[in-house]
Structures are given as C-alpha cells and as structure tokens.
Amino acid sequence: MLDGATEGYTTADGRKIGGVMMEMKNITLxxxxxxxxxxxxxxxxxxxxxxxxxxxxxxxxxxxxVISGFYVPQEGEVWFRGAPRPAMRPFQVAQxxxxxxFQNIALxxxxxxxxxxxxGRLTQxxxxxxxxxxxxxxxxxxxxxxxxxxEKVIDFLEIQAIRKTPxxxxxxxxxxxxxxxxxxxxxPKLLLLDEPMAGMNVExxxxxxxxxxxxxxxxxxxxxxxxxxxxxxxxLSDRVVVMDYGKKIGDGTPDEVRNNQEVIDAYLGVSHx
Amino acid sequence: MTSGxxxxxxxxxxxxxxxxxxxxxxxxxxxxxGIWQSxxxxxxxxxVRSMALGFLALGLNPGDHVAVIxxxxxxxxxxxxxxxxxxxVPVPLYQDAVAEEMAYVLDNCKARFVVVAxxxxxxxxxxxxxxAPTIEHIxxxxxxxxxxxxxxxxxxxxxxxxxxxxxxxxxxxELKAREGKLDYDSTCVMLYTSGTTGKPKGVVLSNRNxxxxxxxxxxxxxxxxxxxxxxxxPMAWVGDFIFSIGQAFWTGFCVNCPESPDxxxxxxxxxxPTYFFAxxxxxxxxxTNVMIRxxxxxxxxxxxxxxxMAHARKVGPDLLDGKPVSGADRLKYKLGDLxxxxxxxxxxxxxxxxxxxxxxxxxxPEIFDFYRSLGINLKQLYGxxxxxxxxxxxxxxxxxxxxxxxxxPGVELRIADNGEVFYRSPGVFVEYFGNPESTAGTKDADGWxxxxxxxxxxxxxxxxxxxxxxKDVGKMADGRMFAPKYVENKLKFxxxxxxxxxxGNGRDMCTAFINIxxxxxxxxxxxxxxxxxxxxxxxxxxxxxxxxxxxxxxxxRSVAHDDMLSGCQVHRFLVLxxxxxxxxxxxxxxxxxxxxxxxxxxxxxxxxxxxxSRSVYTETEVTYEDGRKGKITATLExxxxxVVDTQKVAAx
Lengths: 273, 652
Description:
The complex is a heterodimer of chains A (273) and B (652).
Chain A: E1 9-10, E2 16-17, E3 20-31, E4 34-45, E5 49-53, H1 60-67, E6 75-80, E7 83-84, H2 90-95, E8 98-101, H3 113-118, H4 129-134, H5 138-156, H6 172-185, E9 190-194, H7 202-219, E10 222-226, H8 230-236, E11 239-244, E12 247-252, H9 254-258, H10 261-268
Parallel strand pairs in A: 5-10, 5-11, 8-9, 9-10
Antiparallel strand pairs in A: 1-2, 3-4, 3-6, 6-7, 11-12
Chain B: H1 11-21, E1 26-32, E2 35-40, H2 41-58, E3 65-69, H3 74-85, E4 89-93, H4 99-108, E5 113-116, H5 119-128, E6 137-140, E7 154-156, H6 157-166, H7 168-181, E8 187-192, E9 202-206, H8 207-220, E10 228-230, H9 238-251, E11 254-257, H10 264-271, E12 275-277, H11 280-295, H12 299-321, H13 327-348, E13 355-358, H14 365-373, E14 378-384, E15 389-393, E16 406-407, E17 412-415, E18 420-424, E19 431-432, H15 436-442, E20 449-457, E21 464-469, E22 474-475, E23 481-482, H16 484-492, E24 497-503, E25 510-516, H17 518-527, H18 535-539, H19 542-560, E26 570-575, H20 595-601, H21 603-611, E27 615-623, E28 629-640, H22 647-650
Helix pairs in contact in B: 1-2, 1-9, 2-3, 2-6, 2-7, 4-5, 8-9, 12-13, 12-14
C-alpha cells in the first residue's frame, strides 16, 4: 500500500494522503566518530501525520534536525518536493514552509504570548527597518495582516485569555501550546514537533492531541513528530518510523509497527537465554 | 404604559421594530480574533431571517422544539429568535450538562432539531441520540474538528443561512404566515428548571410573559437603548433570556458576548457595562481576588486602600441612597474616588454600572456593602423561572442586604399561613411542558404561584424577607424552628467557606458539613507556608479546622441573638474531603445544594456527627468531568463547636 505509490493512499479514517513531500535517501549523520543516524530512508507525504519513535538516544531529534535542515548529513540526500535540497540557512528553511517546536521550550520568556506568536510571522515582514520603527506605511499594513493571522491561531488554540500574559508567568503545558502557536503562525506546510507532549499530564496530552489532529484536519498541514508516549503516537499518526541506535528498524502504520518483532525487541528488550 | 394593538406581540416582531427604529445602532457585539465585532439591529434582523428561512428549508415544523446548546454567542441568541420566527419553540440547555441530563431533556421535549456551538456539544448529542430518538438534524456553529463526521444530519449554521437566503423565494410566504400567527399567547421559549428535587421540568413562557416582564422591569430601572450588558451567564437560565433577549429587544440596548469563558473579566473591563447582573458567587470571587492582590501590594498602597475603604464603608452607601452626608465626608469620599474607588471600579469593569443586580442566593452583607460603598448601585432581586424572573426587586435608594425588595411592577404577593410566599403577575408561566399535575400543584386556578420559599413582608418598609426554602424549614426534636439556609448563608459569608450544609430537622441538635474555598484557604496556606498536595489534604489540615471552628462559633453567637432561630446553632461539624459538585448530583447546575442527595450519599458521615465519634472513615464515589467514575477515601476529623446557651430563651 505504501511502496512505490506516488499518488498517495487513504487512511483508516478516510483522509486522502497525497504524494511524497519530502524524502530521506540513505541519510547518514556522524558527529566525529559517533554515528547518530545510519543509512536511513523514508518519506513524508502531503497531509499525513508522520511519527518518529524510538528509545532514548535512538537518533530521533537528530533526524528531525536533518529534516529541518539544521544538520547536514554526511551521506545521503534530502529531497523536498521532487528535487534534492541544498544546505540551507534557517530562514531559507522557514521560507520553504517548514516550522518547528522544540523539546525544551524556546520562547522569549519576557515577552507576551502575543509578541511571541508574532515572531512566527517574521518571514512575512518585508518592510524596512525605518518603516518598522516608525510604524508607518507598509509596516503598518503588514502588522495588521500578520496580527490577523496570529489572532486566528490564538482563537484556534484557545489561548485568548493569556494573549497579553508574559510567557514566563505561564505553566509548562501552556508554554508548549504557545510554542505550537508560534509555529502555526508561520502557516507552515510542514510542521515538525519535537516531543510535543513531554512532561504533560493526561488532560494536557489529550488537549494537545486534539490540537494536533485539528491542525492537520483544518489546515491540511503535514506533521512530523517525535514522541515518547506510545499511546499518543499510535492514536495520532498515520505512519510511524521506528529508530534504534541510529538505524531504522520499522516503518508502517501503527498496527504494522506494533506487531513488528524488531520493534517489540527494541522496546521490551530481548531475553538472552 | 400599556401595549396597544400596534405594539409588537412577539420577540421576532420586536426585532422587526428595532430594525426600523434603531437600524444602525449596535445590537450585539462579540470579541473575536482580539477585536470587538458588532452587528446592528438591521443586520441582526437579516441574520435571523436567513436562519429562519434556512430552518424552514431543513423542514422545521410549527410547534417543534429546538434545543440550543452552547456558551453565550450572538449567533445562538439569533437562532433562538429565528426558531420562534419559524413557528417553533427554542429550548436552551445548559452547555455543561452531562450526557445523562441532556438525554432526559432532549427526549422530554421531543426535540427534532438541535442547534449547538461546537464539536464538544455535537459529540454529546450524538452520544445520547439513541435515548433521544426524535433528533433529526444537528446544526453547529463552529466547524472545527467536525470535518470527518458523517454530514448527512449535521449542518453548519452558516450553510443553513446560505440555504435560507438562496431559497427565500420558496419559503418567504410560509415564513410570513408562520410569523403572522405569533401573538401574545404563543410560546416564546421553554426553559428547564434545574430542580432541587426530581427531574427537570420544562417551563413554558409565552410572549406575554417575556415581553410584559421585560417592559415592567425596564421601566422600573429606567433602562435605555444606550445601555450595555455583558452576556456571560448560562443561556439556559431564565435571567439570561430576560436580560439578553427580553429586555435587550424591548429597550434596544446592546448585548456583548465575551471572547471565551476565561476572558470574561478582561472583556467586562473593556465593555464597561451600564447594566450588570451576577449571582453572589461572582461578586464574592471578585472581592476575594481584590483582597488577595491587596495582600501583595506595597505597604503604602495597602494603607491607602484600607484607609479610604473604611471611609467608603462609613459614607458610601448613604451617598448612594441620597441620604444627608456632611461636606467634609463628601470631600474625603471624592478624594477616595480619585485615589482608590475609581481605579478599583475601573479594574473590576464597574466604572459605568448604573444598575447592578444580584440574585439566586443570599449575598453576604459585607460583600454587598463593599460594592455599594464604592458607589456601585448593586441591588437585590428575587425571582424564579416560573415568574419570568421578577417577583420582587429593590428600588433605587431602598437597598439593604437582608431584604429582596418590594414587589416588581405588576406583581401581587401573598404570604400563606405556613409562611410560604405566593405571587401572581403577567410573567407567570403558562405551564410545565407535558406535566399538568405539576402545573396544578404549583399554580392554582386564580393564577397564584407557590414559590416554595418561606418569608415575610417586613412592616414599615414593605420589603420581602426570605428565610429559607419552605420545605426545608422544619422543627427540631424539642419543637424549636429549624431553618438550615439561614445558618448556611451566615457560614458561607466567610470567604474560607464555599458551601455549608446544616442538618437538624427532627433531631436534638444541629450539625454541619462544610466545604472550604480552595482559592481563599489555598492563598492563606501559601502565605503561612503550609504545604498541601491536594484539596483533601488542605481540607483536613488541623489549622484549617481551627479557622473553620472559629467561624462556626462566631456564627453560633450571631444565631443565638435571633430568638426564633437560636436552636439552629451548630454543635458539631466536619469539613468535607471533596468539593460538592453538580457532576455528582450534589448541587444543581445553578449550584444550589441538593439536601436529600447529600443526606443519603454521606449518611455514614451524618451518623458520625450524631453518635459522638471523634473521627470517621469514608469512601466516596466521584464523577470526573468526562463522565468516568472514581473513588476517594478519607478519614475525617469531627469537631465540637462552642454554642451559646439559650435555654433561658427557649424555656419561655
């Protein structure tokens, strides 16, 4: 059902998944002598929710950094929309429509929620520094347009009540949500989430899952996420890549992955008798 | 003022009138995407018309009941008017009701259409549809998350309106005909009472009930078309219907809907309503927040606040009532207004309040006086769903914490021999839906309605005073009068006590269950470095028990002063390990105590209060917000409270 099909597939709940958006071809990433990722290939398709899972130190975050263009692999190629992607600066990545959240929240603590989310619109601000400082002409028009997008995101994530609150005063779960909001403000085509549920309680996890599904549903955003919570991953994602010690040990639908012997061994350990 | 033959005879007709005479004036506002969006009367009329046409296109029949579920949003208010315009009956439901309650009501009124706000409510309705088989169509406002749902019976409200606009030629004549049939006697709305006992009952209110009550009360408080209100109370509650539809459509004032339930305080401040209504709980919470924040203020600010608030307490209420106050005091009050009261009112969003009401429960005198001393014209009213709200209200200048005012215009009052209050007015409901026995039990042939409350009319002032629910007033074993609410209210006036339930009917002494207020007690614990991990732990803390005991003993001293009720002093009490909750059936949705349920549920605790034990172990079932059930266990300490010996009085 997956291999070779360039025209996509239909998920269990009836969503149409499109063709390949991004493809990893034989990626190997080394830090000095340490091999973080070893010869991994997989693809991410338009409109799907793709999870990368694996035990601690499996190379998941490294993989996400390769996808985001932050790391350049020593071997292999990243294909984006049918062409190999050259090494890029972060703003170029953002301009391609890729946004991300971080495992350890990376917000501007002293700034309000609103200002933080507005920073997600930076790539859309083209007015010169003088116009911005004087809030005049193009800068004013741009700010109004950008604010409109940001307000829609605020409404979407139900954080109206903390719009003006400094981020440092927020509890952890809400900070995570603000970070998602900032990523969404960039109106990404591909959204990368690095452990969006880490450290959350059950209720917060449920809320976050709801938001992730809604983002995918409402905006058709393709989502690639790393997550530890198996229950969440299995419920949320359409396809799962499983990594262990830098290698890919499984790839498929949650059910396929769940029944894959190698995956079971990696998670539960193998008896040595 | 009488309604001549040309006066509008229905709420949709009032809307047509407003579109003519107020046309470009804002009728509704809602904060969305960070900005207040507004709709003029003209626009609202158009929105309602297209909705009504859309409902006709969906096949709505005259006399159908249509449930409306969601938080206060303009489109849902319009839907209620549109439903009536199309000849059907709107039935607003509490949006936080669990599926169980919703199933009962939907089935009881045989709703064919349900208009809901969002996915959460759609899920709830779908969950109960096998128990409410009459449901044919669900119309939702917010499409979010509903994309994957089966849309054979689901419709977006926008699509329904678009359909209505497109098909207007086909249905225009039919809509006109149905609208033409609406008169003073046709049903305007059906509201389910929360019911402290038994299942909820559908109260049928006619256009006469709603329009006459709105007219009378608007005249009473001189409401004007430039007034502003904030609509934040449940749409299923009769008060909200009267304020946000009845009075708003009668006087043509503007209804403002908050952005989300969490932003209510900010929105209140931004709008600055001139006419404001809140149950005592809201005023209590606001006051608690002010006090907590003042505790953290700098020394000088705290001093300034205390100093001027003391002065405000002395002269503020008199100034508001127009009584003579010396020039020096007036000047000092002016200064206080500049430094303290003005900014404080601004922070609370009360700068422009001309008429404020509290009702539903008794309000603590200190809380009531606090707001009045700031110069906010806060008054009390006494009402019921069955009366289309108004039974009595306090006129400007005659405001006191312990009465509920004089009969509202058009209302007659009568006190029965057993002390129960009866009333008769143009607002008296038509009937309980499909329940003639209950209707007959509440309303007699002459139109007198039993309130179920015991009270008396004070000599001299003519104000009504409510003592308690008539059925709760009982006798103790030695024949002394037992009025639990009277004592509970006194207890609840302490910020540390959220809820109290007093027992003693037919017994030889009174005892009480007490719920602490987590905000107030939690703040106190924080300031005193008392660590706690849960509500339960805090509620069982010895120091908390000491504080509560002091409150109980203070109340006992105050109760002892009243000859009639001195027997109601609380001898023993315990602090409950869980907050009483509507989800567990212990409170009604309007947060009134369900005495019998509590008595049955906690009979082990009640037993321990009377058998003299020092502590009691208990297991309690709790319902979580998503409907799952769990169990909590606790060992509760029982305290004895000092009582004032009143045998001399009782022996008379």
